[in-house]
Design goal:
Chain B: It catalyses: N(6)-[(R)-lipoyl]-L-lysyl-[protein] + pyruvate + H(+) = N(6)-[(R)-S(8)-acetyldihydrolipoyl]-L-lysyl-[protein] + CO2. The complex is a heterodimer of chains A (about 375) and B (about 400). Chain A contains 14 helices and 14 strands. Chain A has about 375 residues and is of the alpha/beta class. A 7-stranded mixed sheet of chain A has the order 3-2-4-5-7-6-12, sandwiched between helices. Helix content of chain B is about 35%, strand content about 10%. Chain B has helices spanning about 60-85, 100-110, 125-130, 135-140, 175-190, 205-220, 240, 265-280, 310-320, 320-330, 335-360; strands spanning about 35-40, 45-50, 55-60, 115-120, 195-200, 225-230, 230-235, 235, 255-260, 285-290, 380, 390. Chain B is globular and about 65 Å long. Chain B has about 400 residues and is an alpha/beta fold. Chain B has 11 helices and 12 strands. In chain B, the strands form 4 sheets. Chain B has a 6-stranded mixed sheet, with helices on both faces. Chain B has a two-stranded antiparallel sheet with strand order 1-3. Chain B has a two-stranded antiparallel sheet with strand order 7-8. The model of chain B is unreliable at about 1-15 and about 20-25 (pLDDT under 50). The termini of chain B are far apart. Classes of the chains: A alpha/beta (about 375), B alpha/beta (about 400).
């Protein structure tokens, strides 16, 4: 939509008693901040140190210190037998990585961006994802495919695609996407330890962002369970699901919506496959409204799956149609103004209040459900 | 069963089978006789970027008998699979290996179960060579629980990890980078073993093969790429698919050897040579000049793109089992009757295995959802209707 100025429609406000919420509640008293890059680097370092079967492979991961410096210092520390610079031949080196995993090693294969993973997608799907099933459990594939995913800045159509929904549709794969440094550390460590093939979708624009982390997160045994989403911000009026960079946008949008009296619950998916349907549905049953946010193409996207899942399992709890916000249905343009329009912005998320019926946010519940915690006034 | 033999003037084939040293053991059961015999391969090896091994191969009566028995078993198994497919007990794709048995058998004679083998979809005999049983083969082909992949893989997806057999792959050419990955892991683990990655003349043109070969040569991986050149990639003859069908030379900077793939002893010699080479010097290519009697698969009659004369000509002149039979007879290692008895035994083994496989039940419905992951983490998996048919993955 081309609307430049977004009308903020102030809902009819009413007094609610809300407990005072400290923004820092979810973190312990330690206020150390690390970048996502540092988080990923430390996770790789610790897992390589703990398990000699873990090794890294990819373009420029060694002597160049990593195209995005994620693998900085690891060649010096672990040597060229465990940090391998590959030629620019994704199909070949991905196949080699999967073969090494068949034998029992634990490769971490880097794609400089996931756009290049398409050259190797046969090995990810047919050689890795399906092997445990086809062999009835004989051949498990403990491999991690990682790298930046989705849009960057001004890199054009061939370097900007989001592959979350492609990989997440495939049984046999696990697909993870971290948002902050805690996610990056915990999920990457979990991915490397996992015996199944994991697609680990990072975001280039998040690498340099810092987030506070607790001592627990910095501990070398820290791990985040795969398949569990995180409620980043609690709310009761609408559920917003997001992953990766869009979590940040959703949180900012939630702050803005708060001022209009709309309390959004923001769910950081963390795991695209398996999808944490339990958490999502429990949240929608509480808030009665769903908005999904993603950067990728809208058709057959992650949001489409979440919407369908919620309609299947929590239809009676919905007060408004489910809504998805996604990238534009076009290849990514280069011009800055067009690029901005092709990817969701915070304004797009705030705009939901128009469609979700927040104008008359007087909370007259037309659907009476047992246990529905909406506030009536 | 002791096999005593009579010294008779049995048929002595002429040129090809001249023994260089005679094995003059009397009345010793040949199944355990390891007296060395040296036999020349049918043709010398042709080499690229390396010195070819000698065409004099060391063997012994026991080994030759094993070759005969194993190849006869594989031949019988594939022919039986043909019948089962026509009877609709085997579904989908079925790619038969009869004619190519010498490659599987000769290779096993040169290596151990610590070495890895990976191949494409024409994998039944390779699986048996690695120690797979007939029951596992037939049950898997018929989609039963006793199958090597519990009925969930099918003809193209046989595996035997405890013997380092890694399948069984349906995507043409994919198995070659995977095989180079196995070799990488062997080197990483300092296992002093090698990987044989088998592919056909059709797959030889795949780009990923050259990508993997480049990396293998750069990193000195103990990878042996074995082109089973049966001269037809499905229905396309090699000269129509490859500008250069000299597959053993296609590695350019990687040495190669061209081998008579219908001569089990030549295959053994070449694989022994390749293993020694790969452990010291990195990758090498072996081109096995072989032939398949069946079409590409059971859906292909195999006679629209080649003449029946060609097929019967190869059967007459180059059949791998007949070659070994003639060797055994000309060296007086067994009588014709003894060899025929072996063939009868093998036929019975195959029939018994089929009967047993037919008894094996189809997989339980719950198996639909098993092994999706090694660690399911309690994720939910849905069947078609999403309500009745669903499971929590362990």
């Amino acid at each position: 939509m081309l609307a430049i100025a977004r009308q903020r429609i102030l809902g009819q406000s009413f007094q609610k008693i809300r407990p005072a919420v400290s923004v820092l509640r979810s973190y312990s008293s330690a206020a150390k901040k690390i970048t996502v890059r540092e988080a990923l680097n430390s996770a790789l370092d610790e897992e390589m140190s703990a398990d000699p079967k873990v090794f890294l492979m990819g373009e420029e991961v060694g002597e160049y210190q990593g195209a995005y410096k994620i693998t900085k210092g690891l060649l010096e520390k672990y040597g060229p037998e465990r940090v391998l610079d590959t030629p620019i031949t994704e199909a070949g080196f991905t196949g080699i990585g999967v073969g090494a995993a068949y034998y029992g090693l634990k490769p971490v294969v880097e794609f400089m961006t996931f756009n290049f993973s398409m050259q190797a997608i046969d090995h990810i799907i047919n050689s890795a994802a399906k092997s445990n099933y086809m062999s009835a459990g004989q051949i498990s594939v403990p491999i991690v495919f990682r790298g930046p995913n989705g849009a960057a800045a001004g890199v054009g159509a061939q370097h900007s695609q989001c592959y979350a929904s492609w990989y997440a549709s495939c049984p046999g794969l696990k697909v993870l996407s971290p948002y902050n440094s805690e996610d990056a550390r915990g999920l990457l460590k979990a991915a490397i330890r996992d015996p199944d093939p994991v697609v680990f979708l990072e975001n280039e624009l998040l690498y340099g962002e810092s987030f506070p982390v607790s001592d627990e997160v910095l501990d070398s045994s820290f791990c985040i369970p795969i398949g569990k989403a995180k409620i980043e911000r609690e709310g009761k009026d609408v559920t917003i699901t997001a992953f990766s960079k869009m979590v940040g946008y959703a949180l900012k949008a939630a702050e803005i919506l708060e001022k209009d009296g709309i309390h959004a619950e923001v769910i950081n998916l963390r795991s695209i496959r398996p999808l944490d349907r339990t958490t999502i549905n429990a949240s929608v049953r509480k808030t009665n409204r769903l908005v999904t946010v993603e950067e990728g193409f809208p058709q057959h996207g992650v949001g489409a799956e979440i919407c369908a899942s919620v309609v299947e399992e929590s239809f009676a709890y919905l007060d408004a149609p489910v809504e998805r916000i996604a990238g534009a249905d076009v290849p990514m343009p280069y011009a800055a103004n067009l690029e901005r329009m092709a990817v969701p912005q915070i304004e797009d998320i705030i705009q939901i209040q128009e469609s979700e019926g927040y104008n008359s946010f007087a909370f007259v519940d037309t659907v009476v459900c047992a246990g529905n915690a909406s506030v009536n006034n | 069963m002791a096999l005593s033999y009579l010294r008779s003037s049995s048929s002595r084939s002429a040129n090809l089978l001249r023994p260089l040293s005679s094995a003059a053991s009397l009345r010793r059961p040949i199944s355990t006789d390891t007296t060395p015999i040296t036999i020349e391969t049918s043709v010398p090896f042709t080499s690229h970027q390396c010195e070819a091994p000698s065409r004099s191969v060391e063997t012994n009566p026991s080994e030759l008998l094993t070759f005969f028995r194993d190849m006869a078993l594989m031949r019988r198994m594939e022919i039986a699979a043909d019948s089962l497919y026509k009877a609709k007990l085997i579904r989908g794709f079925c790619h038969l290996y009869d004619g190519q048995e010498a490659v599987a058998v000769g290779m096993e004679a040169a290596i151990t179960k610590k070495d890895c083998i990976i191949t494409a979809y024409r994998d039944h005999c390779t699986f048996v060579g690695r120690g797979g049983t007939l029951l596992e083969v037939f049950a898997e082909l018929m989609g039963r629980q006793a199958g090597c992949s519990k009925g969930k893989g099918g003809s193209m997806h046989f595996y035997k990890k405890d013997s380092n057999f890694y399948g069984g792959h349906g995507i043409v050419g994919a198995q070659v980078p995977l095989g180079c990955g196995l070799a990488f892991a062997q080197k990483y683990s300092k296992d002093e073993s090698v990987t044989f990655a088998l592919y056909g003349d059709g797959a030889a043109n795949q780009g990923q093969l050259f990508e993997a070969l480049n990396i293998s040569a750069l990193w000195d991986l103990p990878a042996i790429l074995v082109c089973e050149n049966n001269h037809y990639g499905m229905g396309t003859a090699e000269w129509r698919a490859a500008k250069s069908p000299a597959y053993y030379k296609r590695g350019d900077y990687v040495p190669g050897l061209k081998v008579d793939g219908m001569d089990a002893l030549a295959v053994k010699q070449a694989c022994k040579f390749a293993k020694e080479h790969a452990l010291k010097n990195g990758p090498i290519i072996l081109e096995m000049d072989t032939y398949r009697y069946h079409g590409h698969s059971m859906s292909d009659p195999g006679s629209t793109y080649r003449t029946r004369d060609e097929i019967s000509g190869v059967r007459q002149e180059r059949d791998p089992i007949e070659r070994v039979r003639k060797l055994i007879l000309s060296h007086d290692l067994a009588t014709e009757k003894e060899l025929k008895d072996i063939e009868k035994e093998v036929r019975k083994e195959v029939d018994d295995a089929i009967a047993q496989a037919k008894e094996s039940p189809m997989p339980e419905p719950s198996e639909l959802f098993s092994n999706v992951y090694a660690k399911g983490l309690g994720a939910e998996s849905f069947g078609a209707d999403r309500k009745e048919l669903r499971a929590t993955l362990a």
